[in-house]
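Researcher: Go.
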Amino acid sequence: MTSQAKSSTSSARLLRYLPMPIFLGLACLALYLYVSSQNLDSIERRSLNPSAIIQQTVRLIELAGISTVIVVVLAVTTGILLTRPYTRRVTPFVIGLANIGQAVPSIGLLALFALTWDFGFWPAIVALVAYSFLSILRNTMVGLQQVDRSIIEAARGMGMTKPAVLFRIELPLAVPIILAGIRTALIINVGTATLVTFIGAGGLGEMINNAIRLDRTVVLITASGLTAILALFIDWLASVVEDILRPRGL
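Model: Structure:
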């Protein structure tokens, strides 16, 4: 590829990435102007304190990020194992367990962990992992199963070992589908993380809950708007990473 073609491709990619950050920046500006135009009382000023907003936003990111990293490691590993011939008998059982995690309403799952374990950060993390496990597990299995068997047989015929075939043939070809599952799980965790305030894990859900209890519309709009903006930004960021990590030519 010539330098001119590379430059054109880079420019096209940049133009494709720009609209969402611009939109989210304008949304943040609109939210700031809205709050600035309101006559806030002492409760609203305390709730909308920048340090409090930053702290709760960081906690939401921590909850979504840590739970997603854990579920990626567990679900991708499990998905690889379940597509091996020697695990076919236990595959329906494991998928059934993963289905339970997503079939139970998220607030019910959080309440279950709080009642049987504890309140706080780590019970919330485990609940988020259980809730988003199926999306990555299913995509990992589908991605590996859709690899053409003739390609695998050809690689084996060339003398490649089973681990080499897995890491050099199967996983690279399954990457687009696996990444789509990871992106879905990340967005699920961001949305569900607003509910963990009910088991004492904090996050922007705490501000939303307080705004509803105290009937503070400005605080509710601000917290809900920030949560939506954060979810859209993380989804955009995940789409960029997905595009970068996607093997060329697929």
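Model: The chain has one domain: 58-245.
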